[in-house]
Structures are given as C-alpha cells and as structure tokens.
Amino acid sequence: MQLQETTFPLSIPAHIADEAESPWNHVLGLERLSLCDWPGHASSVLFCGGCNLRCPTCHNADLAWSPEEFPALSRSKVLTMLAERKRWLDGVVITGGEPTCVPGLEKLVRDIASLGLPIKLDSNGMRPEVIESLIEQNLVEQFFVDLKGPFRLYPALTGNKVSEERAARNMEHVFELARFRPKAFVFRMTRVPLLSEENIQEALLSLPEGFPLKMQQYKEPRRTHAPVNP
Q: Considering the entire predicted model, what is its pTM?
C-alpha cells in the first residue's frame, strides 16, 4: 500500500520541503500508530533498512540485510502524515534494521524534530559515535539499546559480525554516555535460544550501576520486512 499524495500543511517548516532527501532513501517502512514500541507513548514508527550485524534471530532480516529489495518511502509524504497527526502523537520511533548505519541520519532526525515531535531511537549500540553525536545535539529523547548477551557470546549472537573485544568497547562507550544522561537510555535484552539464565546474569554484571535490564521474550520471527501502514 502506498502513501497518498497530499500537499504540505502550513505546519511543516519550509526548509524541510526544499532539502535533498538522502537519508530518507533508507526509510523503507512505516507504522502510523504504535502503543508498544515506545512504552507510555502513542508513536509512529519509521523502519530504516540495513544493518551492521547478522543476528540469526532477527525479526526483520530481509529489511536489515537486503534493503535494496524494498522501495523507499516518500520523505514529503511521511512528513506530511506526521505533521497532520502530531496532535495525537507523543513521538516518533526510528528503528530498523540499524538506524545508526543510515548515512546522514542526523538530517532525518532533524526533519522530524522540526515538527515538534520527540524521538526515540532503537540501536544495537555498535556505532556509539553516532549515538554520542545525537545526544550531544539533544536530537533524540531516548535511546533503547540492545544488550545481546555476555560480550564473549557476541560473535555467535551477531552472526560473527562483532568480536568480543569490539562489542565490549562499543557498549562501554554507550554505558559511559548513559552514565552522563541516565534518563535518555533504556537497555534491553531478548531471551534468544542461545542464552541461558547464567548468560543473562553474566550480561547484567556489565550494565552501569543503577540501570535495569528490560527483558523481552523471544518469538520466532514471522515478519521479515517492515510494514507500510499509511
């Protein structure tokens, strides 16, 4: 289903309509309304294609690994929809795939923020420099970061895309950012089949003091692409 053509409402800043759409070429899916992707918020969800990991339990594998197979959504149509519905929205969730892999992500975030909508961003934490840049500019209200498991299991959990050492280094960078801005970070873990209770407890020890770990139950992947739900 395609988004319908509409004209820009007056509430959209003029500069948004005139700029190039580079990072928007990676926005491949949309849910107009979600009550679960940002707890306590009625949000729209944008799905970005591409990912730097190959987790065997990925729920959006086609979107993450073969984004070229999906057409990009129209920047102007998505922004128009958000502007028209923002009185009923508490924010926008940017997820993936892995959003921090999107070239020019900052511009996409700025476009949304210009509408006056708070933003939550989901990330695997493996590009902490992108998270740091966004938080320094106060562009994202909350980051939900996945802790896959104990660092020593990251190679198996990510399809051998991340070594134990690199996972530990990247996540410690994220943890340091969280210590500086604690309300901006939520850490979560999915009980994938590879993880035992001992593994989960081991991973908990790596979290910064005072941060809980939000546990998610594992479900067999069913949806392999992002929805387009205008």
A: 0.87
